[in-house]
Specification:
heterodimer, A: 110 residues, mainly beta, six-stranded mixed beta sheet, 11 strands, globular, B: 113 residues, 0% helix, 53% strand
Chain lengths: 110, 113
């Protein structure tokens, strides 16, 4: 059974700093997804990572995938307050089923 | 833009009531999903459907059923609501294929008293 674990679960950081959220998954998975959720809102897709070594970047966020280590990372560069949100990773199990991590609540302080 | 809509943003029901949550997508997606979201547990899959009238159990189907009579609509049914079904319910849809990105609706916050 596929399990997905994120760490840290809570992260408070200052604007301008860099940090990384880690997403480990327990068994082989073909795809890895990152989502963002603002308070009271639904999930917004950020990245889809399809293969080993895949790297995607959007603004101050960069996601990467190492399928051999069963690890994906979401790196935040020079954080700004607007990036405060909860971030979820999810790995695919079988053809369509997503298994989500617990989420990382990120707070960026001025 | 893909649009996934859910019938209610907030819902309050009493224990034992039958509850219907409706989800509609407008992008002709093959797959539709129902999740519940609880603090510290992430999202957990209740049921999904890969075609009209087809359904598959997810990780936590107990106490729920689903219906998909039309491609664009996927309903979640709580036959007899209980307090432990108080949660945020999220619907999603996807086209399938190699990327198979899921698009989520706004969510329904259900409170069972």
């Amino acid at each position: 059974e596929l399990k997905v674990e994120q760490n840290p679960l809570f992260l408070s950081m200052q604007e301008g700093k860099n940090y990384t959220i880690y997403c480990n998954y327990s068994t082989t998975s073909d795809r890895l997804y990152w989502y963002r959720q603002d308070p009271g809102k639904s999930l917004e897709s950020l990245f889809v990572l399809l293969s080993n070594g895949a790297v995607k970047q959007e603004g101050r966020l960069m996601a990467s995938l190492d399928t051999k280590a069963r690890l994906s990372t979401l790196h935040i560069t020079a954080a700004v307050h607007d990036l405060s949100a909860t971030y979820f990773c999810a790995a695919i199990q079988g053809a369509q089923k997503l298994v989500f991590g617990q989420g990382t609540r990120l707070t960026i302080n001025p | 833009d893909v649009k996934v809509t859910q019938s209610s943003r907030y819902l309050v029901k009493r224990t034992g009531e039958k509850v219907f949550l409706e989800c509609v997508q407008d992008m002709d997606h093959e797959n539709m999903f129902w999740y519940r979201q609880d603090p510290g547990l992430g999202l957990r899959l209740i049921y999904f459907s890969y075609d009209v009238k087809m359904k598959e159990k997810g990780d936590i189907p107990e106490g729920y059923s689903v219906s998909r009579e039309k491609k664009e609509r996927f309903s979640l049914i709580l036959e007899s609501a209980s307090t432990n079904q108080t949660s945020m319910y999220l619907c999603a849809s996807s086209f399938g294929g190699a990327v198979d990105e899921q698009f989520f609706g706004p969510g329904t916050r259900l409170t069972v008293l």
